[in-house]
Amino acid sequence: xxxxxKRRTSELILGQLVGQIALVAAIPFxxxxxxxxxxxIYQAGFSIALIVQPLATLxxxxxxxxxxxxxxxxxxxxxxxLSALFAVVAGALIGPGIWVVFDGIVGQTLIxxxxxxxxxxxxxxxxxxxxxxxxxxxxxIRNLTAGVFAAALQVIAAQLIPTAIAVATALLVxxxxxxxxxxARKPLLSEKYGGGExxxxxxxxxxxxxxxxxxxxxxxxxxxxxxxxxxxxxQIGVGQRIAGAPTSLIGQALSQVALxxxxxxxxxxxxxxxxxxxxxxxxxxxxxxxxxxxxxLLAPILAEPILGPGWxxxxxxxxxxxxxxxxxxxxxxxxxxxxxxxRERQLLVLQITRLTxxxxxxxxxxxxxxxxxxxxxxxxxxxxLAYAPLLAASFVAATRHDQSAIGNND
Length: 410
Known about the structure:
By secondary structure, this protein is mainly α.
């Protein structure tokens, strides 16, 4: 069993690593080919999509792996339909209307956001479905192809039509192709187990909690877009994306591995979840420390040589946000388990507290100093400290699951 888990982990990390390296490698081409304002619109649209995605999918991507096969299939269909509806409303109705009647920049941002929303939701839902079926090699191939296709198509789009909408469309086309090439084909079989602690779904708490979590991490990008304009949002967005690259490189794969390893324990109410979480946290903590140090030392020096003239601020901002974004390597796989463990309400309270703290830091820094760097430093420190209660809650939930499982076996 241990060998099988190691093999799965290696395959998923390799697929995610190659795919995300391709996306990161595309950034210098995009920063040179696209005007900063268009890059800012794209970054803002991406941030908005990440915030809305939990509502568009109703967090079904976290229920599918622990549900019975029949319920998992239903969750998948409903989430895909709902996310498509959200994308159409934002990208084809509201966005064009605002563009024509009120504001072109806001309209373009909503159109790009709608397109990105469906691309993000599609991959989240379909990946969860592969986890449910245990098709980890297919999932690894999808992670790889989605990243490589997106990087290539986005650079081509930026060369031909250097706009946020064109680059967002390239992302969606790439993910549709990757999903089609790796679609799940295994026939579903009915199973005895399904649901674990999630016998009754409290979807409202899970959705709001995830939206608040996304808002916490995207607040600086969205806030700068509205207050300072698209160019400032581009600097901050690119800086955060570079600082968050290590999490993107392997963080999603680690979350998939964690959810895949934990799902049988949750479904079948077996012990061992806390030990799994401890081992995972030690490994991800070491990786986060090395990553943050490297980003702090190298990003300010290498920003303009890599991204091009005019992108020095992005390098400084990368260093500023290196610690909280590297900590996502630790927090993301751990806190992902709180929803299938039935802890949505507790997670919601913790996420609201975190968002409030970050918002206070943002507003205080802006009002007291008026300096972008000082404001971002204050926000970064607050953001980092806010992970502690979330990690503590994950360990408490895992421990209680194990205690309950042992009690049931007795």
